[in-house]
Each structure stands twice: as structure tokens, then as C-alpha cells.
Amino acid sequence: MKYISTRGEPTGRHFSEILLEGLAPDGGLYLPTHYPKVDDATLARWRGLYGNGRPGGYADLAFEILSLYIDDIPAADLKALAHRTYTAATFGTEAIVPVRRLEPGLYIEGLSNGPTLAFKDMAMQLLGNLFEYELARRGEQLNILGATSGDTGSAAEYAMRGKRGVRVFMLSPQGRMSPFQQAQMFSLQDPNIHNIAVEGVFDDCQDIVKAASNDLDFKRRHRIGTVNSINWARLLAQVVYYFAGYFQVTKSNSEPVSFAVPSGNFGNVCAGHVARMMGLPIARLVVATNENDVLDEFFRSGRYRVRAAAETYETSSPSMDISKASNFERFVFDLLGRDGRRVAQLFGAGLAKDGGFQLTPGEFERIEAFGFVSGKSTHADRLAAIRSTWEDHGDMIDTHTADGLKVAREHLQPGVAMVVLETALPAKFAATIAEALGREPLRPAALVGIEDLPRRFTVMAADAAQVKAYIERHCRA
Ligand SMILES: *Cc1c(COP(=O)(O)O)cnc(C)c1O
């Protein structure tokens, strides 16, 4: 399998060559030249392989899917990587992504039982093992520099902790993450993990990362990389749980299933799109947004309008607070018949000049064939969904999953099971849970008392030069 760019360049790279890279050279995103089609017999075999909680079943399924897209890692090695990643020890159950039934035809798929209680662990844990493997094979090192306001940073740190050849330098705005998130990140004692608490806001952190990455000499000398959401390996890892979810709610491969996906950067639901393109019988992909409704506006009108900072709201589902959706270009490439020139026009010069674009009526019409529908949710909707799910089912869901559930209910169809993806656990969002339910959220036993653990972090001014000097010192160590 080779990879091409959404802006048209046929780069001809293999998986391992794009694993450690960000954007394609022409500024586009990498996608495989085609989506391998999975026939009925293969689906049936995979259903048996996953086996609904069979030990190692998820890892075996992951290996099958990854193999279709990765042809430059020996099969035995790839299988071992999958089995090292997807264990009951890391994800809590042999099912890895257990589905629970809320009501007839309405299910929740638990993607958040990994170390940081959010679905990003599903991809990031695999990425950590892939990075370690590939860096060892090349005899290289990588220093991951990132900025986080919570979720992504902790998932990256828990994936890379103790990995050979990798160091993580993670900037976060001092005192602005939730106490739980701070405890999660700062309690890591691994010498290859560096938490830098910046005296500033999240944008200051991001500006420092940009400044360091734009210093090409610094970047090259210190082998600076990222683990951002456009990484193809992350997206690919997420394809697997659509299959595992499908197998859990159906008995045969003739039953259509819809998935509702709390969305921000469009990585998660784009993986659903890939699964559907491969032939998984997905009826609808329901894109759920919060008040930051860039994506809902697009799927309703064909207009993609990047939001200014002043128009990007801080909400109680903060991991969906986006101004633009960084993976979205991948779907548009497929929507437009893989016309890289048109994508380059829309996302390159057009986006820079007009802050967005409008599809032609002919282009917009095609969305239906791809199964996408959308909806949005507000703070009040979130509270209501958390409350009713708790009162009616004794099931406590987090704020992002609540957005997904609220929008899912608007798109139920008779005879089609609806699976809402649970993207985080309520323990991470105590304040909103207290507002909705008047009590503290449930917390997995392993994380009780995490706030009392010793912390390891460095406070620093919002100054790129200081951060670069710190990285320089610790790269030599
Ligand atoms: C990252 C995240 C999302 C959004 O996922 P995308 O892949 O960016 O669309 C939703 N919910 C939670 C809890 C997240 O951490």
C-alpha cells in the first residue's frame, strides 16, 4: 500500500515513511491510494476472530485491519505490536471496547477505558509502540513537542512513557487544566516525559510550539516531531473499533448499523468513513458537535467556515472546542472524487483568502451517498442527556458522549441499531457532572487518590527561547 496527498501529489510513500511525518510535502494530508474492500466472507471471519471478548481477539482484529494498510513491517512484528498494545491490563476488559445497551436499538461503545479515560488512548497507545519500533529499526531518536489543554497531552504522555528513543516535551497553561488532568499528567515520573507548565494560556503554549517548529535548524538538530491528530496511523488505529462495535450489536453482516460520533477535529468520524468505504455495513455516520458547530454547518449547507478565536467558545465538552477541523480535508478529498486539484483550491489559497469555502450544489448532493448527517448540542442539552441517562438507566456518561447521545436520538431509524461512541469517562469532567447530577462522578478504582501523588513538572515563562534551551539541555542527557 502506498500513500498519496489530498492535494494531489502521488508521493508513493509507504506506511513507515509517513509514520513519523506530519503534512505531506504539498501541504495536504496522507491517505492510502485506495481503501481495501472487505467481502462478506472476510467480515464473517473477523467476527469470529474478535469473538466478543475472546482474549487477544481485539488485537487479532487490529492486526488484520492494519495489515491491509501496512506492508513494510513484517507480519509477525506487526502482530506482536498489536498484542502488546490492546491488552485487558491496559484497557480494562478483554473486549477492549465493550458495548452496552441503553435501550432497544441504542447502544454505547466504551472507547475510554484506557489509561487516560478518553478514546485518544485507543490510537495513541498503538502509536507509542509503532514509534518505538520504527525508531529502533532506524537507530534514530525523536523528541515530541506539543501543547495541550488536557486530553491529547495526557494520552501522548501515557503512550510514550518509558518508550526507548522517544522523549516528550508537553506544554500546558499553568493552573488552567482541571485538577484531575494536572494530576494525571504531572504524576508521571518517567524520565523521558517532561511536563512544562507555561505561565500563560493555551495559545501561548501553541505559539511556542510553532516558534520552535518554524526554527528549522533547531527542529532538525533536535529531531523535533509531533503526535497531532492528522497522523494517519492514529486514524487507522481508530478504524478497528468500528468493526468491533459492529460485531457486538449484530448477529450477521446483513444488518446496517449507525454510529454517532462526538466530533472536533474529525479524526474519529473520519475513521468511521474509512470503515464504511472498506465495506462495513454502516448506515449513517452521525457527526455530533457542541456549540462550536463548524462541522454541523458544513453537513447542513455545504459551507465550511473556519471560526475566528472570538467565535470559538469554551464549552463543557472542551475536547470538541475547535475553530477548524484538521482531518476534514481527508473526507472532502473522497467526497470530491479524489480530485486533488480541487481540494488544493478549497483548502489552500481559498481557505487562506476567504476563511472557508462553499461546495457547489452538485458537490453537496454527494454527501448523502457517504452516509453523513449531523447535529449540534448545547450546555443545557448536555446536562439533560447526562441527567436522563443517569436517572433512566443508572448509566453515567461524560459531557462529550452526552453531545453524541443527544444528536444520535435525532437520527434514529427503525431497524437500524445506533451506536454512540463514548469518547471520555465522566471522572474527567467533575464540575459539569456535579452541575447535572448534584454529585461527584464515578472514578475507576485505579485513579482514586491520584491528586495526592508526587508531581514532576517545570514552570516556565511563556518564552520560546527558554523552552528551547530546556529542550536542548534535556536532549543531551
Ligand atoms: C478528541 C476528543 C473528541 C473529538 O475527536 P475528533 O477525533 O477530534 O473529532 C471528542 N471527545 C473527546 C473526549 C476527545 O478527547
Question: What's this entry about, in short?
Answer:
The chain is of the alpha/beta class and 477 residues long.
Tell me what you see in this structure:
With 477 residues, the chain is α/β, with parallel strands linked by helices. The chain has a domain at 99-116 and 232-437: Rossmann fold. Helix content is 45%, strand content 16%. Strand 5 (142-147), helix 7 and strand 6 (166-173) form a beta-alpha-beta unit. Helix 3 packs across helix 4 (75-85). The chain is globular, with a radius of gyration of 21 Å. The structure holds pyridoxal-5'-phosphate. The site of pyridoxal-5'-phosphate has 16 residues, from helix 12.
Protein topology:
Layout: E1 3-5, H1 15-19, E2 30-32, H2 40-50, H3 57-69, H4 75-85, H5 88-91, E3 99-103, E4 106-110, H6 120-138, E5 142-147, H7 151-160, E6 166-173, H8 179-186, E7 193-199, H9 202-214, H10 216-221, E8 224-225, H11 232-249, E9 257-262, H12 267-278, E10 282-289, H13 294-301, E11 303-305, H14 328-335, H15 340-354, E12 356-358, H16 361-365, E13 372-376, H17 379-393, H18 399-409, E14 417-422, H19 430-437, E15 458-461, H20 464-476
Parallel strand pairs: 4-14, 5-6, 5-8, 6-7, 7-15, 9-10, 9-14, 10-13
Antiparallel strand pairs: 1-2, 3-4, 11-12
Helix pairs in contact: 2-3, 3-4, 3-11, 4-6, 6-7, 6-11, 11-12, 17-18, 17-19
Bound molecules: pyridoxal-5'-phosphate.
Residues 118, 120, 151, 229, 262-268, 319-320, 400, 423-424 line the site of pyridoxal-5'-phosphate (PLP).
